[in-house]
Amino acid sequence: MSKKRHEELKQILAKHDYQYHVLDQPLISDYEYDQLMAELLKIEQKNEGLDLADSPSQRVGAAPLGTFEKAPHRLPMLSLANSYSTEDILEFDERTKKFLNTQDDLDYLCEPKFDGLSMELIYENGLLVRALTRGDGTVGEDVTQNVRTIRSIPLKLSLKEPPALLEVRGEVLMFKKDFANLNELQQESGLQTFANPRNAAAGTIRQLDSKIAASRPLKFFAYALGAVEGVEFSTQHEVESYFVKAGLPSAVNHKQDLVRVCSGGKAVIDYYQHIEKIRSELPFDIDGIVIKVNSLAVQDDLGLVARSPRWASAAKFKPEQAQTLVESIIVQVGRTGALTPVAIMKPVKVGGVTVTNATLHNQDEIDRKDVRVGDTVVVQRAGDVIPEIVSVVANLRPKNSQAFLMPSSCPACGSKVQRVEGEVVTRCVNPLCIAMVKESLKHFVARRAMNIDKVGDRLIETFVDHKLVLRFSDFFRLTKADVLSLERQGEKSAQNIIDSIHNSRTPTLARFIFSLGIRFVGEQTAKLLADHFLTIEKFLKASEEELLQVPEIGPKVAKSIIEWTSNPKLAQEIQELQNLGIKITNPVRAQEGPLSGKSFLITGTLPVKRDDAKDFIEKNGGKILSSVSAKLNYLVVGDDPGSKVEKAQGLGVQIITWDQLQTML
């Protein structure tokens, strides 16, 4: 039974990894996923000899390596010739047709050129057995241990009859929002930040400790074949469509129509201009497009030129960079006390956006780039969003310039600052620092936290300066008269602010925990804590040992939470918030209700959206399961229910309709 359930859990978790990390369409809550993972780990701990090759338990990382071994590629990983203009695209098209001695338009598969780390995944009989970096094109580094932790990469292909060998080539990368969150966490942790998403992805893959790789949000997109045995293809588009069928992430099925078969050079140019136009809207970095002759037979006819394929080319976008002047360097203080130097620059347009400042991160970064006031610098938008200084134009530096040094006292409150050994960040040690207070309050009202939408950064600055708001609870003591006492506040805007504060009085537990600004507790960690402890009271009383039982929470995070919750003033502040009418809810995991103690699974098409149906069940105390088992009480069926009905009947699970579910209430 354990072996059978183990295989079942592996399939269920693999499916949910695909839905969440590839399609971005989760079917179950994080809590339910964690429960399934906990069951899997328990079975594996109690039963030796189980097949772990494709087990999701391998995603968490293994013991650190001493070094990466080298391994050869069966087929060389080639590099592409680059171009930077539409004229170059037409030249590539004409050159290709001339070599083939034809004037007919050729079909090209066109796709974005990802700005990440090239990777080869080797599947044997459907199982991932090895992952190699490009290396020198002939020999790469074996980074299998780290690649196994990337949840968008299947450990086992979702094919009934997988080929004996399938080498999949693609790109490991990091989405822009994940990159920003990682850098924020690095900054808070006193660690070195990354210059751009590509560096973050490459640095993560080359970690000798795969547990670090497992903690970072890497993604993968497949786009090319290496060696293959047991399956044949006729076109490049067929290859990439097969990847999707096998459960591999590919731009072919991306929401924004990113892969296109173009007939002729002019159609390729239209695609190039289209992708360049939507480039900033994409969730990941690209630096151009890749053009490939679609027919694999024609690719063979075209062959290679040196180490580049004659049948493919990369058309890059021009770098979004500009030169400007650093007018000053200021130091900002964050909510955790971190001092961050920021270059204030003469306004300049980069990629259509006016840039006026760029973070310099810390003293080490300033020293590395040697940025000084008065310098002429090259600036670009890292990840098409975050402004960064790339380099200094040394020959334009003023003769009297001086190196910049971080202050020895806090620029906001004058207290001493310190740099903890092993960290790159300098911090203010005064917990009552006015800058830290302001940043904490800004975090508290943010959209993903308490969501007090009419209270913006400038208004918080004003509230604090006038001593109207100095802690979280002060927001809920504000009166309309208080707001009207400030400059430029009319009756209507003052009422809107008070209404906005009032409307925020019923946060979910996850939002409330996140709003507190506990160091290392981001939005996702707050959700895990809420799902585990269920109430704010249990969370506040949790011991370090209890916190370590929560998925993804390690000693560092647990220690940070304990430091926060053990502070009597902060605990008193939460009590004060509740006294002022804050009602913390946990709708996802209702403890009581008509469906309390009963478990449900939905199959088929219901007369309402599936997410709405799940919310309905959970808000009434029911629990949603992810598969049919003896633990299931009710299978809720709609149109075209599938095989779950037969399995439920075999286990004696009660089968009901949506209407019957509603009558239970």
Helix/strand layout:
Layout: H1 2-22, H2 30-46, E1 70-72, E2 82-83, H3 86-100, E3 107-114, E4 117-124, E5 127-133, E6 139-141, H4 144-147, E7 165-173, H5 176-188, H6 197-205, H7 210-214, E8 219-229, H8 236-245, E9 260-263, H9 265-278, E10 286-293, H10 296-302, E11 304-305, E12 308-309, E13 312-316, E14 321-333, E15 338-350, E16 353-359, H11 363-369, E17 376-382, E18 386-392, E19 417-418, E20 426-428, H12 434-445, H13 457-465, H14 480-484, H15 491-502, H16 509-515, H17 523-533, H18 536-541, H19 544-547, H20 555-565, H21 568-579, E21 599-603, H22 610-619, E22 623-624, E23 634-637, H23 644-651, E24 654-657, H24 658-663
Parallel strand pairs: 2-13, 21-22, 21-23, 23-24
Antiparallel strand pairs: 1-6, 3-9, 3-10, 4-5, 4-7, 7-8, 10-13, 11-12, 14-15, 14-17, 15-16, 15-20, 17-18, 19-20
Helix pairs in contact: 1-2, 3-9, 12-13, 16-17
Could you characterize what this model shows?
The protein has 6 domains: 2-60, Orthogonal Bundle (Helix Hairpins); 82-316, DNA ligase/mRNA capping enzyme (D-amino Acid Aminotransferase, Chain A, domain 1); 321-406, OB fold (Dihydrolipoamide Acetyltransferase, E2P) (Beta Barrel), CATH 2.40.50.140; 434-502, Orthogonal Bundle (DNA polymerase, domain 1), CATH 1.10.150; 509-588, Orthogonal Bundle (DNA polymerase, domain 1); 591-663, BRCT domain (Rossmann fold, 3-Layer(aba) Sandwich). It is 35% helix and 21% strand. Strands 14, 15, 16, 17, 18, 19 and 20 form a 7-stranded antiparallel beta sheet that branches. A 5-stranded mixed beta sheet has the order 2-13-10-3-9. Helix 3 (86-100) packs antiparallel against helix 9, helix 12 crosses helix 13 and helix 16 packs across helix 17 (523-533). The longest helix is centred in the N-terminal third of the chain and has 21 residues, at 2-22. The relative contact order is 0.08.
